[in-house]
Amino acid sequence: MHFILHSDIDQGSIRANLGRPEYSYYFVLRAFLPALERLGTVELVRDPLSEIDPIFDRCRDRGETCVHLSFSPPNKTPLGLRCPSIVLFAWEYSNIPYESWDEDPRNDWRVPLGKLGRAITLSGHTARTVKAAMGEDFPVRAIAAPVWDRFAKLRAAGVPTPIIAGAVLRIRGIVFDSSMLNLSVDLLVPPLRPKERTKETEASSEGTSSERHADATPVTDRALPVADADRPAGEESGPATVPPEPAAQPPRSLRYRLGIGKRHLIEWYRETLRDHLPRPLSQAVSWSGRVGEASMRAVLKRLDPAQVARLKLDGVVYTSVLGPTDGRKNWFDMVTGFCFAFRDTPDATLVLKMIHHEVGDYRDTLILLLSQLAPFRCRVIAVHAYLEDKAYARLIRGTTYYVNTSLGEGLCLPLMEFMASGRPAIAPRHTAMEDYVDEGGAFIVDSSLQYSVWPHDPRWMFRSERYRLDWESLVAAYRESYRIAKTAPERYAAMGQHAAKRIHDLASISVVTEQLRSFFQPEPIAAEPSDRASLPPLVAVESA
Q1: Is residue 493 located within the same domain as residue 394?
Q2: CATH code at position 170
Q3: CA dihedral sign, ordered 427, 429, 434, 438
Q4: Cβ(113)–Cβ(127) below 8 Å
Q5: CA–CA dist 508, 150 (Å, integer)
Q6: Using N-to-C axis directions, what is the helix angle for 331-341 and 471-487, rounded to 10°?
Q7: Burial class (CB within 10 angstroms; exposed 0-12, middle 13-18, buried 19+) of 351
Q8: Does 189 map to a domain?
Q9: Number of structural domains, the chain?
Q10: Beta-strand pair 379-384/308-322
Q11: Does 251 map to a domain?
Q12: In angstroms, rounded to a whole number, what is the distance separating the alpha carbons of residues 426 and 320?
């Protein structure tokens, strides 16, 4: 059998497209190559409209079966080719798009799926959503990307230790390390120009200058000026200290009130609207509402993406690989939960391997968040770099747990890769993660459904559902995982072995090869367009 493979992003363009929509299909294609090569000849094309049909004609002339595998969403898969085409895709929402917009009928995914006639999905969740829209008899098969075999060397190194001791990573890129940054909320407030200093600001700064430079001691922890507060009743006491009369506060100015209102408005926007705005609009709002940009830039040194950074990891290390501009990854919860769980734990480290092409798109957001959370003794590291396979393996070796706080997953290759290497996880059990995450190999984060929109729908209408996480459950999972790493290494080892076995049973090359073999028999035939009137009623698919 001759397989023609296509993805919009290939090896030559992946670095420049990290974090862009559908970039991960390149990694999915690469993962499927070994299994497909066991079944036949594999050929990659760049221009499907001009290259696929000539290849198909040559294969047909010599009597060879030929099929085109499109690693892309259904609405971006070429239609009308002579060569039979099968779409292989991921999807994390409760239903597939069932409406069209922009005068393009392909945006109703039932149209391209009906014309293609069959599909491969990367998870059981996605397969169920397809059947709910296309009918139970529609030929769709859930086949995970085979990642297990790539990490044999890491597993051969033995059972990983839960406490990392001096793992060193050399990274060509940019590293943000909270332990090296002068994080403070004060840096977020731009200094007043001399003409803006009023009697009000001078009066307020008079009593707070010493507090501002004190050693991170909360004001509420200081002794109250009332004597003998803890002395038993009736016991002789010394002279009472009368608390001073509070100084009269000057009336709050309009500037002060507007500043407070702006702060609460920004917080409301971040919590309710930001994830639902089109990306260009959300970026415009972010740039226009930036506060204290000059002060934050003063904290950061001049960053050179070509420099080689040396990163040393110790203690209990939590790692996540994610796209920082993808709101579905929900890394704000990940970071805030970590800093609250380990505020006074210096040997807890969170490594965020950011997948994005432009560091400026998230740098200020990251520094702002960490500054708001400061002070904390735990360590948060963000890595902006493309890691080759060897560097990626070193990152896995320097990791105790993998963390996922997504609102939905179509597959989550990094989570599977770390679990295949024997690293337990902290993750919710919904969407694609239902296929391989359980309590034997992960600390489960509670979640529940909420209304959502399809991410590529410019109308932003609530037509679907995704998940939201229970933040307190996340904090509890952090703390319990740390306790296990420090006090129960045998349980940690058992969880790692269980996690690796789950990935082996789901995503080894031998398992996936047999699934593909059975799917491609009999020979695939291009289907005629489906009758829209015959489509079953739409239902949302809720994870079990």
Answers
A1: yes
A2: 3.40.50.2000
A3: positive
A4: no
A5: 9
A6: 50
A7: buried
A8: no
A9: 2
A10: unpaired
A11: no
A12: 10
Clarify whether residues 154 and 141 are in a common domain.
no
Q: Which residue has better confidence, 207 or 51?
A: 51
Residue type, 243: P
Number of helices followed by number of strands (H, E) in the chain: 17, 16
Q: What is the rounded distance in angstroms from the CA atom of residue 282 to the CA atom of residue 238? A: 62
In a domain, 496, yes or no: yes
Q: How much is the average pLDDT of 400-420?
A: 97
Residues with Cβ within 8 Å of residue 475, at least 6 apart in sequence: 337, 340, 341
Strands 85-89 and 119-121, how do they pair?
parallel
Nearest residue to 319 via CA among 294, 297, 348, 292: 348
Please tell me whether residues 438 and 329 are part of one structural domain. yes
Q: What beta strand segments (E) does 454-500 contain?
A: 464-469
**Measured torsion, CA atoms of residues 91, 428, 139, 147, in degrees rounded to the nearest 10:** 90
Structural domain for 418, as ranges: 150-183+296-507
Which residues, including other chains, have CB under 8 Å from residue 76's CB and lie 6 or more apart? Answer: 8, 22, 70
pLDDT tens track for 141-174: 999 999 999 999 999 998 899 999 989 999 889 9
Whether residue 158 is found in the same domain as residue 135: no
Pairing of strands 2-6, 41-44: parallel
Domain co-membership, 73 together with 164: no
Measured CA to CA, the distance from residue 460 to residue 454 in angstroms comes to 7
Looking at residue 10, the DSSP 8-state letter turns out to be -
The CATH number for 18's domain is 3.40.50
Other beta carbons less than 10 A from residue 243's beta carbon: 10
The answer to whether 402 touches 320, Cβ cutoff 8 Å, is yes
Q: Do 165 and 121 share a structural domain?
A: no
| Confidence label for 18 from pLDDT (cuts 50, 70 and 90) | confident
- pLDDT above 70 as % of the chain: 75
Q: Give CA separation, 499 vs 317, 472, 510, in Å.
A: 17, 24, 18
Tell me phi and psi for residue 72, to 5 degrees.
-170, 165
Task: Decide if 364 is inside a domain.
Answer: yes
480 vs 482: CA distance, rounded Å: 5
Q: What is the pLDDT of residues 445-476, one digit of tens each?
A: 999 999 999 999 999 999 999 999 999 999 99
Instruction: Say what the pTM is.
Output: 0.77
Question: Residues 6 or more apart from 230 whose CB is under 8 A from it?
Answer: none
Rounded CA-CA distance 32/122 in Å is: 11
| 94 shares its domain with 167 | no
Question: Does 402 lie in the same domain as 487?
Answer: yes
